[in-house]
Every structure is written in C-alpha cells, then in structure tokens.
Amino acid sequence: MEKILVTGGRGLVGAAINKIVGSDSSYHFTNSSETDLYEYKSCRELFQKYQPTKVIHLAANVGGLFKNMNQKVDMLEKNIIINYNVIKCSHEFGVKKFIGCLSTCIFPDETVYPINEDTLHNGPPHSSNYAYAYAKRMLEIQCRLYREQYGDNFMCIIPTNIYGPHDNFNLNDSHVIPGLIHKCYLAKKEEKDFLVFGTGRPLRQFIYSDDLAKFIIWLLDNLEYNESLIVSPDPAEETSIGKIAELIANEFNYLDKLRYDTSKSDGQYRKTADNSKLKKMYGDLDLTNIEDGIKKTVKWFKNNYNTCRK
Ligand code: NAP
Ligand code: GDP
Q: By the 8 A CB rule, do 205 and 232 touch?
C-alpha cells in the first residue's frame, strides 16, 4: 500500500489536499508541532516512523513581498535546510515519487514573457526576493541531481501565487490576497481607510489552493513524469493588484475607502507564466475564477477569524 507523506500539511496547500483526500488513510499530513523539519534528526525519525513511498513536500519558510524583503537570511537558510533534510531522507528511505514546490517568483527578473520551465536559471531573480529564489532554485537543482545520479523520481512543480482558506493572514508577512483581506476587515471594523501597498499596477496570476491540490494529487500518480512543471492559469488571466484590492473591498462593501500607499514597494511588475506544458498533459484545467475564489476565501476568513493564522 502507498504511504504518502505531506510536509506543511496544515498550511494553505496542505489543507487543500487534505480536504480532497478526506479520510484516505494512505496520507499522513505532518506539521511543525509533530516534527521540526529544520532538524535533520527529527526529519529522519519522521521518515523512519511513516516509511513513506511518496512525498509531497510543501513545508517551507513562506511569505509575501515584504517578508521576502525584510527577512532575507531566514528566507535563504531555512528553505535550504528544510529542503536538504526532506530530500535527503526521501532518497535514504527509497521514496519513489517526490514532489517539491518552487514558485514563479524565482525566475530571472529580466526575461522574455511568458516564462517557461526551461528558463529558470537563466539570470538573477528580482532583487526583492532573491534569497527565497536562490534557495528554491537549489531545490530544483537538488532534485535534478538525485534524478541524474540515482535515478530517483524527484520533481518540482512551479505554482504562481496561491490563495484560499487556511492561508497566512498576518498583516506584515503574508501574500497580497490574505494580507488585503485582513486589512480590509480591520479597516471596516475601525472605520479607517483600506490601505493597499504600492501603485496597484503590478500583475499576477493567482491559483486557488483547491485547484493546485487537484493537480498535485494527479501528478503524484504519474510516476513517469519527472521534470519541473508550471502550474498556473493562462497568461490572459493575469490580474492587477488594483483589481484584486477592488474585488476584496467589494466583498466587504468598502470600496469607497480604498487608498494606495505608493511609498511602499510594488515588487516585481509581472512574472507571467506559460502553462502550455500543463495544459498539454492535463487537458482543460477548469480553474476557479478569481471572483469566486476571493468570495470563498473572504467567507472562510470571516467564519474562522478567531482561529486562523494571522
Ligand atoms: P504555508 O501555508 O506557509 O505552509 C507551509 C507550512 O510549512 C506551514 O504550515 C508550516 O507548518 C510548515 N513548516 C514551516 N517550517 C517548518 C518546520 N521547521 N518543520 C515543519 N513544518 C514546517 O505555505 P503554502 O502557501 O501552503 O506553500 C506551500 C508550498 O508552495 C511552499 O513550498 C511554498 O514555498 C510554495 N509556494 C507558495 C506560494 C504561495 O503563494 N503561497 C506560491 C508559490 C509556491 P506549521 O503550520 O505546522 O507551522
Ligand atoms: P509576490 O507576488 O511574490 O510579489 O508577493 P505578494 O503576494 O506579497 O504580492 C505583492 C504585490 O502586492 C506587490 O505589488 C505589493 O505592492 C502588492 N501589495 C499591496 N498591498 C499588499 C499587502 O498588504 N501585502 C502584500 N504582501 N502585498 C501587497
């Protein structure tokens, strides 16, 4: 019987996979309360205990633009360590399928759009997130080396910006959607302006966590495939931060109070990703549209305000 270990099992993507697989007992969702994956010994004990045949490795030091700009040493070191430990144990315990998570924000800053899987290492990343980006690029390298030297089936997916229930809604560290949902919630409660950072002009592709979870589960069964794969909506679905802010403000009926703080960074202007490889393999992606995804996420945040990560 397969035994599937999911690291980062109660995070944004982990929780979405958990919701889909339900009570399937072949899955074990681990979290930092069970095991500190920064410690090699603890990581090894976890593998010893569960003897996984497949690993979905989601655990990471994750955050939005401002966390990436302010905590560069942690973004580099913690991600390098956690990936090193989990991959090394996956090899040692004979894992036959490993899926790691990169991100479209780790591609070269100066590039030709839309970016595709082949251009990952062709130039330095954007200055705002180069610590996280270099750590994640090493994850791709490490997987590739295990494939080349040992024939291990270790691969990486490259998702665009992810959002949904169980995200991190912290005001300082989070990604833009959960950060703005929390900000708008507080602004309305305190009758203040809803402050969006930057100009609102940058463009992003957003994928709802349940949709990403569906592709990860599908890939897990595809033992043959072992190259990096971009998982994103179509380039035409690129959405401005301003549009995202308006959709969120609308959910709270607070559009009148939306303001921009242009003293704050915009980060990378765009990182348009090409999903044609995924579409060729999977067919029709059937993704949640951004309006519905934001509606569901705001509803979840309001219903879980007291207990959610924030
Ligand atoms: P997330 O919600 O922050 O979940 C990551 C989880 O990692 C956390 O829940 C945390 O577990 C766990 N973790 C961190 N340090 C750990 C440690 N030392 N030991 C054990 N567990 C630890 O992140 P996500 O958004 O689901 O991201 C999943 C993957 O996708 C990550 O690899 C991320 O880099 C990548 N990615 C994310 C985005 C995005 O927009 N969110 C975009 C592209 C790629 P606890 O909660 O138990 O502490
Ligand atoms: P990125 O896609 O990796 O750059 O990360 P984010 O999800 O943090 O998105 C950053 C973009 O959203 C930048 O253009 C920011 O200026 C803009 N933004 C606006 N308000 C906020 C906010 O409150 N938090 C974050 N993280 N970004 C914001």
A: yes
Query: Which residues 6+ apart lie within 8 Å of 158 measured at CB?
Result: 102, 103, 104, 106, 117, 120, 228, 229, 230, 231, 232, 273
DSSP 289: P
Task: Provide the pLDDT confidence category of residue 281 given band limits of 50, 70 and 90.
Answer: very high
Residue 132 annotated as catalytic: yes
- Cα–Cα dist 120/104, whole Å: 9
CB neighbour class for 151 (10 Å; exposed up to 12, middle 13-18, buried from 19): exposed
Per-residue model confidence (pLDDT) at position 222 = 81
Whether the model clears a pTM of 0.85, i.e. scores above it, the answer is: yes
Average pLDDT, the chain: 96
Among protein residues, the one with the nearest Cα to ligand 2's atom 18 is 197
Q: How far is the CA of 127 from the centre of ligand 1 (A)?
A: 22
* pLDDT for position 195: 97
Which atom from ligand 2 is nearest to the alpha carbon of 171?
Answer: 23
Contact between 265 and 200 under an 8 Å Cβ cutoff? The reply is: no
